[in-house]
Structures are given as C-alpha cells and as structure tokens.
Amino acid sequence: MEHPFLEQLRQRPLLCDGAMGTQLYARGIPYEQCFDALNLTQPELIQSIHRDYINAGAQIIETNTFGANRARLETHNLGDKVREINIQGVKIAREAREISGQPVFIAGSVGPSGRPLQAPDEQRLRELRAIFSEQIEALQAGGVDLLILETFSSLAELRQAVLAAKESGLPVVAQMSFYEDGHTLSGSSAARVAAVLSDLGVDVVGANCSVGPAATFDALEEMIAATKQQETPAAVPLFSAQPNAGLPTRINNRFFYVATPDYFADYARRFANAGVRLIGGCCGTTPRHIAAMRQALDESFGTPLSSGPDIPLPHDQQVQNGTGTTRKARITGTVEEETLLPQQGSMTHLQQKLAAGEFVISVELDPPKGLNPKKILDGAAILQKAGVDCINIADSPMARVRMSCLALARLIQDHLGIETIIHFTSRDRNLMALQSELLGAHALGIRNILALTGDPLRVGAYPNTTGVWDVDSIGLMRVIRGMNEGYDAAGSSIGAHASFHIGCALNLNMTDEEVEHEIEKYQRKIEAGAQYIMTQPIYEMAPLERFLKRVGKPPIPLILGCVPLHSTRHAEYLHNEVPGITIPDAVRARMRAAGERGNEEGLHIAQELLKEARHLIQGVYLMPSYGRYEVVSELTHMLHMETANH
User: Fold this and answer.
1) CA 519 to CA 547: how far, in whole Å?
2) pTM value?
3) Which of 286, 312, 487, 626 has an alpha carbon 20 to 30 Å from 170's alpha carbon atom?
C-alpha cells in the first residue's frame, strides 16, 4: 500500500511552498533570531505564513523546523527544547491546514546540523545520526505526512539524516544544495548525489537553495540522466526542485531577491516537463511565486481534484434524507410538508442494516477548525468509495472549537449522499439549546445521534469556560427518546413522532474498580432508550469477553471501536496518554518489532481482532489518526472481502 503522498506525486507534479525565513524577515524578524523558537513564542505568525502559502495554491507545506535540531538549538541555549519546538511546529502547520480546509500534505523540514564535518569518524557519524533521529522522532510524533531533508552541502551528513529518516517509515525527500558548477560545497557532483541517494532508497531526490532555477534545472537534468543508467529501474526515485529566487542583493542593509513570479512560473513548467514531480521554492520565494507556479502547473496538467477553496451548493441534487431513502432536493417557491416530516416508523439506513443483522462500518471524522470543509468532504468521499456505510462526526472533540457537527453532517449528506452519525454532547448546551438543535437536526435529515456527555472543558482551549451539563448522556438519551414519542422535555407536543436513532458509548477498557460503575451506566443507558452501542477501541479480545461474560449478549447492536496503529510511538502514546485506551504489552511489542512496517502491522492487528470478534459484534467504528484515511480505507476493503467470504 503506497503512501498517498507518493501515489499523488506519481500522478502529477505537486507544488510545495516557498521560503519561511524570507517571510519572517519581511515581517520584521531579524536573521540573528532563532526562527524555530518562534513556534513557541509567536505561533500565530508562523501559522499566518503557512496559510498564505496554502491560499496561494501550495499542496505541501513545510514545518518551521529547518534548524530545530539539538546542535543548532544549543547555539541559542535551546538544546532542551528540541521535542517541544518540533512538535509545536507540526501542530501549527496542521492547524493552518485545518483552518484552510485544504487537503495539503505536512512535510517535516530537517536541515543540516550546522556543525563542520571534516574527515568524520564513526563516532562523529553516530552522533550526527542521533541528532537527526531526535528531531525526526519529534516531527513524526507531531504527525507529519513526510520528511524533507534540505539544504545539505555534505553528502556524508545527508546520508546520516537519510538513515535516521528511513527509520520513521515516512516518505523521504532528500535535497542537496549545488553551486553554478553543478557541485556541492564538499565537491560531490549532481550525478554522484543522485546515485548515492537512490542506492539508499530515498523516495524523492532533488536540489534546493544556493542558486536560482536555471542552475537548479541543470543539476536536476544531470540527476535524472544518472538514475536512468541504473540496473534496477524499480529503484529509480522521483525528483524535486526548490530553487532560490536567484542570488540576493543587499540594499540599505536588507536583502532582496530578483527572480520574479513569472520567471518561476516558466521554470515550474520546465521542471515538470523534465520529469520533476515535487516543485517549490526556497530563499526569496513568496506566496506570489507559489501562486504563479500553481497557475502554470494547472494550465499544463489540469486542476487537481483536491484543489480550490469553494464548495458549490447545487440547486438540484441527490440528498440522503436520513431515513434510508434518497430524494431530489430542488429549490422552489414552496416545500411540501411531507418531505420534511418523518414517515411513521421510518428508519435510517444504518438502522435498517442493523435491524437486518448486517455488519456495518462507520468511520469518524473531526470537523474542520476553520471555515472551509473541503478537506473533510474529500476524506469522506474517499471513505465512501472504499465502502464505508456511514460517517461519525465528532462534536468539538477535546473541548476545542470546530465547525458544528450538525452543519458538517448536512454538507456530507448533501454532497455525497452518505449517511452520518453525529456525536451530540450535553457539555456546552443547556436543556433548551439541546432540544432546539435536535429539532433542527431532525428537520435537516440528521437522525443518527450518538449521545455523549462530552470532554471536560478544562482540557480544551477555553479552560475558563463554564460547562452546562443540565443533563448527562443518559439524560440526553431520555430527551431524545421523548422526542421519538412526540414530546419535549417539558412534556409539550412537538407535533409528530421524531425518528432519531439513538446511540450510546461504552468503555470496555474498565479497571477492576470501575467495572460495577460502568456496567450500571450501561444498563441505565439501555433503559434510557439507547438503540445501538459504539465502544472505545480495544486491542485484544479480553475486555470484550469480560464485559459479555458479566452482562450477557446486549439487547441492542454492539459496534466495536478500532483505532488502527501506525507506529510504535503511536501505540505508546495511546496507551500512556489517552484516557480510556489500553494497549496490551504483546501488541506494543509487535509494533516495536514492526519498525518501518508499522502501518502494515497495525492493519494486521486490527484485522485479526475484528475477525476474532466478528461473531460477537455487528459492526466496527474506525477512528483514523491524523486524518490517515488510506489506512481505514484499506481496513474497510479487508472487512468487505471477509464479509464476501463469510
């Protein structure tokens, strides 16, 4: 299963962003200051630059971590901040992506150590690799999609960075800096660099910085020609180019670059036609350069499906109405009442499948933090194509502000026709607001509700905000059940029987001290009107078997939670830092042993568990980490194949 970044890169050129340092300098940050430390002190500034590049059309943005290795940070007395600065750098980039709503890739930027490397011995090389490994581990923990090793002038040093990067299992872009003569500072030719990096198994090989587009183009031509001579064509890498905007000129103690956006647009076409697949800019390039390059690439190769900020709302389209049927929605002068009110006893598509004893697959998506829902809609479309039955939409998870789950549910059902399950919390709505939004949800065709109490507000961005909790999740289910019976919480008629499909949550990872309390809550939820159960993720059969042994087979369908693991760091994080999730020692040992094959091993673990649990459950509730839709898509394909053979 190829990484989505590499898969897209093989299909057409992807555009990376431009300079970070140039933009910071233009905003008044002196070159003497540690740019990487701004991740901690001025995150809004860094995020605004990321957003400018995304708005200009960049499909890849690099984290502000070029110099965030221990060796460089120690010169600013920040050697103990390596992990914090890198993780924060990724967080800022991911926030920029969320707010923009664009499905851009996040690349972890890794620069050279900054220490001279003359006649290095084995001890020196081991120290270098440790420096790079420390930074790369932090970038991976933050959730980058790929790594870009850039502006290296020593091939020996870059080799250590590549070896450290390969341990992550992420796609690796490795770029050297060349002078006008086509050689690095250490004397390596472009052909030599390409051969060495290709032998190391680097995914994307290229050049950046130092010179402008013309000399970079010459270096890339030499690299491409050199790799064509390889005996094993399968090992031929892809290529990248991120040149400077020419050589800088100093005017009144300020540096200026002379290469124009139009000049870069012309070279973007030349690079792409020569076979370069990752194209961007380095020092001196700005969002204007990136916008011009994006236009040039779109004119030559067509606009990619994932581009563009606008989501058109058609006047005539297929709409999933939440009752398991599809109808035409057309804007007219009048609306027939029967199209809005539920049919007596009508059922959602999910409800119909569960009632028929069919196995269902749902995947959770978090709403965007900004105004643009396109990235989430694109993800939902991928999942729909993979065969997912419905989409779970979280309600401002971790008590952080996100787009309304109700609004996103409607967008998904309108644009894709796939049914949704909204997570509805009592945390920050009083009893009036709860009922008001439920009435609105029903009118909009949103009928599958997972009733939750909600994460404590103290864990989010507004710790001083007051929670409401007029009712807890059990009280919320009673309110929804009352609406299904035709009245509100005060006993007043709502004019018809609602047709909500009520779900409840279940934590299977309960400690011995929690067992009695959790079982009592489960029984109260059934009495309150729950119609299906969605569990927290588990990684072995023991928690499920223990629960069923105590309570017997539930009277309502049980849908098992599953978060596929993708690395040993991911497993340790979930086990040690996320409440309600316990990962057994044996599973964590398997993930450690898997190394670079973490994604594959995580899929195997999930597939084995679900296969063993299949006769005890009626569905699976998948939760992708860091928006890795490809992982849950692959697992969905596996589950469908097992169903066909069942």
Assistant:
1) 8
2) 0.77
3) 286
